Every structure is written in structure tokens, then in C-alpha cells.
Amino acid sequence: MIGSFKLCDCFDTVPPSGADCQEVTFFTEGRGTAPVRPAGAPTVPNPPNVESVAPQSSASQPSIPQRRLQPLLHDLVTTTSAPTTALSAADGQIGAGGVQGVFHADARVLARAVLLVDGREPEPIGYTPAGPGASRFVSLARWLGDPTPDPTVRIDRLRRVIPGGMDEKIVITSTADVPVRATVTLDVACDLVPIEVVKSGDSAALLPPLNGLTWTAAGTTVTVTGDGTIVETGLRWTVDLPTRGSATLHWQLRIHDFRAVVAAPSGPVEWSRPEVTADDHRLVRLLDQSLDDLSTLRLTDGEDTFLGAGVPWFLTLFGRDSIWAARMLLPIGTDLAAGTLRVLARRQGRRVDDRSGEAPGKIMHEQRRGEFRVESDGDDLALPAAYYGTVDATALWVSLLHDAWRWGMPADEVAALLPSLEAALNWLAGHTGFLRYIDTTGRGLANQGWKDSGDAVRFRDGRRAEPPIALAEVQGYAYQAAVHGAALLDAFDRPGGERWREYAERLAVRFRAQFWVDGPQGPYPALAVDGHGRPVDALTSNIGHLLGTGLLSAQESAAVAEALSSPAMSSGYGLRTMSAQDAGYSPLSYHCGSIWAHDTAIAIAGLAKTGFGAAAARLADGMLAAGEAFDYQMPELHSGDDRAEVSRPMPYPAACRPQAWSAAAAVAILQSALGLYPDVPAGHVTLRPGVPLGAITAGGLRIAGIDVTASVDASGNARVLSLPDTIRIAEHTHVPAQRRAASDAVGHR
Q: 401: part of which helix (H) or strand (E)?
């Protein structure tokens, strides 16, 4: 359906009366050439009451509203160098419609880049990653060259994304015994729409170029150049290839964005790249690809680097995601953690604002360039540019500061953040009983833990819980933050340590009294306590986050380990977010049955810390099997299908990839397997390998800024070399035989 309405020249503002506005064309379906809107005009989501009308028969059947569906991502190739990313089909073509395009800092800056040879699309035969931020696409022009069964004209399209741009080198190679002449064109188009319009499933009108191949709208200017001739629709080259000759063509995209709230770093990565050898080759492959992915997600605020959460929807600052990723990467350096802590501290809440969720001391959820509005199936969100709708980021921030300090973050950098630490702890103290959340606006996130979809918090029988909600894992985070905060306050001669240790003790008592429920396989902590004080008795992966926080007793940890190890939770490809025996379970539910790499890695780390190595190894083997199936680029999530029923995990079709905490999970598994737990301020390191995966050696890990080598042999004996002179080994244990036995079954050695 096509129509028009008036909007001001910005991404996200409805015009006030009398504003200088332009008329904008919109339509709600179709993937081909779009209507053109005025130069410089923005595109915004379709009005919420727009419907498509089904064809009517002579009986005049009623119209059927069109569902607004989020585009699928699983079959696209992503090439990223934050804050810029390109999403294309597997043949390298960027077609108008869907989510394909080049995105930069929350806006799509190129909607089409289609290569044609003599007016025809080349036939694709494959693509391959070509290093961080680069992809190679190979296709054929079989109608050219020798008339033989073998193709004689090949096209290699090497795409390299850089922050603020994209370069492509197109190499046309002939092995024909005759000369080849062809006209090559690149058809380009631009719509400059905000990313939430694309996420909502809406299409947008294309902008006409201002001059040549330049487009501008809402503070962003995009230019395409190349060594071909500029024509109305893009670039054109005439290619003459001699016998067995080749030609190389180039084109470039450049973006000038004056409204971006994130930027690319200019220096090298903030972490080391460890050299790892392992009996299980999958671990090495997963680490290599994950570190490549992480290098493409780096963003800066001033001089401080953090990781954007994921491509394409979340390539910006996300409190929870950025914190977890930095925490998992502490074994390879503290600089990223320090940058993440400072970036979030600068945005720490100062006032009470119900619409944004801001509160004094609270750590933010996400930062966007403007209001983030999504109106697709299941979503009706209007999040302010600076949004604080997260119940867990504040406690996680405290623990990241503590853990970075333990790994050797310089004391003066830690001390500079102590006022933010105290403010964060005071925010925790403002909650009576448990840490709870409720969205009072009706346009924010209904659920504000890491499982933040609207249907994520359910009872075992499938009913949705009513707010305010107290999530199980959040109480674990709060307990750990209180203990960690007390340790930091004591170490830096600040008052309040005893207060926070008492807070943690009281929280543990309340948790034990209200969260534990009985299930078919035995007792376990409920997913949450709802607004009526009832335990939400679904069996979920959330309880894996409790392990190692200190909230649970040894007996309670054993019960959690048993629950997580059940076939209903452990699929063979990782840990399901919800038990397959619960009524709300679906293997393709975003948070009620799918598998998330970071979630599985957190459970692995907790199991390893608390002595359940066999259970940790089974989950690690499943995660490595999933990594192998996804070419070692771990997606945001994948299906919860059982390994006994499918030979490879099914993709979750809207999963982001790369995703920061999914990639960082590989380092978390490595640390758990090595059992490396430093306490630099105390001058010691504990070696307690907890995931029996065979022999592993990792050089280039960092403790107190010094490269060290850690290893564990096939019998579970651990060692560490090149420790700083001020650090001693405090505890040196190995994996007991009964825990090692699990390694015999993990395969792929």
C-alpha cells in the first residue's frame, strides 16, 4: 500500500505545528524498485494503522491486515568493521528490500549494490571470509568465453568494510582461448533510513542522488565513486580481456555522518591474541574466528573502547552485553574492561526519569542516535536514545570492576571509578527485598533481564508472569556485586564494606526461602518471583548464572548442576534457555527454548568453578559442535533441537552474527578449561582446571599486563609460566579422575 504524510527532516521526530516539513512517500510491501522521495527527506516507520488489503473477490471478502515481520538474517553474509557493516546475499549482491544493505551507526546508508555483466547477474559458486572486515564472493559469466562445459570467465568480488565506508575490488578473469568483451555495471541506490525501520519489516522509498552518486539526509552524506563511468543508476565499465587475460575494477562507498553517537577506534586491539594448541581442534578454530569477529565490533567513546553488542541491530553500546563480553575477555587483557567501565560510568544515571528508566547510580541499557521505535510482530517499542531499562547491568558493572582489578587493572584506574561503584551499590540498596523491574510506560521493554522478549518469563504451565518481576540470576548478580563491592571498598580504605556483606547475607536468606521449587527431577531455583510473590516455576538456563556467585550452598549448587545436566536442558549443542518439558518451550523461541552461546558459557564457567567438571565438559562439547556447524562464527543464538535428532543445529533465522558475547564465550571456555584465577592485588594465582577437554596450552594470556603461558595436560595437571615476580601460585589442583572421565566421551580429538 502506498501513501504519503509529512515529517520533519530528522529520523525520529513527529513535526510540531507549523514546522518546515517535507512530504514523504511510504509503502508497506514489495522488494523491487521503490517510489522515490524528495532529496534530503528522511524515512520513518509506516503509520501504525497502515494495512495492506487482500485481493477482494466478487463476494467482497473482508480485508486482512498485513503482519509486519522482522527480516530474517540467517542466510546473509555479514562483513563488518564497526560502526559500519554490509549485509548481502551469499552471491555478494546487495538487493533492494529486506535487511540487505550497508549500515552505519544505526542507519542504512546503501540499499542496493547489484553487479551485472552484459545486463545479467553472474552465477554464484561460493563465498569465503577474507579476514576481519572482508569477504570474497566468486561467480561465473558462463555466457562469455569458450563454448565448453567448463566455465572460462570468473568474477571475484573482494569486499572490504572499513569504519565509515566500503571498498570493493572486482577481478574478472578469463581462461578462454578467445578475447572477451563485456559491459559491467554496478546498480546502486540509497534510502538513508534508520535501522529500526528496517527491523520493523518496513520498506522505504529510495532517495534520488543530489549530483553524481551522492545522497544526503538528516546529517548523513553518502558518496559512491569508482574507476568506471558514472551513469544514472551507478557505474559502468567496458571490459576488454585478451586471451587468458584479466581486468580489475574498483569502487568505493564513503559515509560522512554528523549524528553518530559511536565511533571507530584508531589504534590496535586492546587485548592479546593467544597462541593456543589443544587436543580438540575445534577449540582452536573457535578461538581464532571469535577473536577475528571481536576485532570488528570495537567502538569508542573518546579514548575508551568498548564492544558493540552485535550486527546488525545492536551495533552500539549495550550495558549488559558490553559488560559480559569485556568480563569474558579478561584473560587476554584488562584494557577493554577499563574502557567499558568508564564509558558506562560517564552515562551512569543521575536523576529519576520514568520514561527512560534512568535512576541515580543505574547503569544504562543502550545508547542510540535517536528514539528507537520498532513496530513489528510482537514488538511495539519506543525507547529513548539513552535507555536505562535493564535490571542487571548495574550489578554486572560492579563485578566487572572487581574482576578487572583481580586480573591486574591498574589501581589508579580502579580508584578513579570508586565514586561510580558507590553510586551503583546505592542503586542496589534502593530495592527492598529483591531486585525487581516493571515497565511503567507501556512502550519500554516489558522484561528487563537478559531475556528481554515479552514472553520470556513464564510458569512451567506456560502462563506469563505478572510484574514486578524478580529474576533468579539477577539476585545472584546482586549478591556477587555486594560481596565484590565490599572487597573493593575495603581494599581502597572506603567505608561501607561490612554493610554490603550483610546485604549479601540477607539476600541469600530471602532467596533460599522464596525461590526454590520442586520439579519432576528434583528441587531447583525458579526462574523468578512474580508481582504476587509466587515463584515462576519454569526450569530455565537462568539458574546456571547463579553458580559461582556465592549465593548458593554446595548442596544447592549440586542441585542446579543436576538440573542443567538433564536431557530436557542440555540439547547436545549447548544449554536450552527453557526445559523441553515446560509448556512454554519451543526450540525456535528467542528466549524459551533456543540456545545462546554466552548463556551456555556462563553455565560452563559456573559448573567448572563449583567442581562439576563432567557437566561442564558436556556443555562445552556441545558448544564446540555448534561452533563447527556454524563455521566457528557463533551466532547470537540457535535452535534448541536435540543433537540426537538433528545432525547440526538449526539456525535461529533472525539471529545476529557476529555477536560480542557469543564470540567472547570462546575465551570464557578456554579460561574454565585452564582453571586460571588470578588475584593480582593479593599477589597470587589459583590453578584449578575445571573443564576436562584434553591437553591445552595457551601462550599470550595476560595477568597484570604481562604475557603468561598456561597449560593443562590430558590428566588435568595445570601449570603457568612467566608470571610477574610479584605473583605466586597459591593453589595448584588437577581434575580428579572421576571428572576427567567425561573427556573420554566428548570426541573430535
A: helix 393-407
268 bridge partner residues: none
Spatial distance between the Cα atoms of 280 and 298, rounded to a whole number of angstroms: 29
- Spell out the domains of the chain, with CATH numbers in brackets: 77-257 (2.70.98.40), 275-745 (1.50.10.10)
Say how far apart CA 69 and CA 200 lie, in whole Å: 6
**pLDDT at 332 > cutoff 80:** yes
Kindly report the backbone phi and psi dihedral angles of residue 403, in degrees, each rounded to the nearest multiple of 5, phi listed first.
Answer: -65, -40
pLDDT digit string (tens) for 354-392? 999 999 999 999 999 999 998 765 668 999 999 999 999
Those residues with Cβ within 8 angstroms of residue 655's Cβ, 6 or more apart along the chain or in another chain: 73, 74, 635, 636, 637, 638
* pLDDT (average), residues 281-305: 98
* Distance from chain centroid for Cα 181: 45
The 3 state secondary structure assigned to 133-144 is CEEEEEEECCCC
Cis amide leading into 567 (omega within 30): no
pLDDT confidence band for 22 (50 / 70 / 90): very low
Summarised one tens digit per residue, pLDDT across range 709-727 is 999 999 999 999 999 999 9
Cα-based distances in Å from 598 to 453, 545, 639 = 17, 11, 14
The Cα–Cα gap between 465 and 476 comes to: 20
In the numeric block, the cell 588437577 is attached to 734
C-alpha 361/C-alpha 10 separation (Å) is 31
CA atoms within 13 A on the CB side of 419: 8
Res. 202 pLDDT band, cuts 50 70 90: confident
| Nearest Cα to Cα of residue 519 among 579, 584, 600, 604 | 579
Lowest mean pLDDT of 1-10, 145-154, 272-281, 494-503, name the range: 1-10
- Each residue's pLDDT tens digit, 114-140: 999 999 999 999 999 999 999 999 999
Three-state SS sequence of 335-386: HHHHHHHHHHHHCCCCCCECCCCECCCCCCCEECCCCEEECCCCCCEEECCE
Which cell numbers hold the place of 547?
A: 553458580
Order of strands, edge to edge, in the sheet holding 2-7?
2-7, 22-27, 203-204
3-state secondary structure of 742: helix
Give residue 457's region: left, alpha or beta (phi > 0; psi -120 to 50). Answer: beta
Q: Name residue 209's beta-bridge partners.
A: none
Q: For residue 198, what are the CA distances in angstroms to 106, 195, 349? A: 10, 5, 30
Question: What is the C-alpha to C-alpha distance for residues 628 and 288, in angstroms, rounded to an integer?
Answer: 12
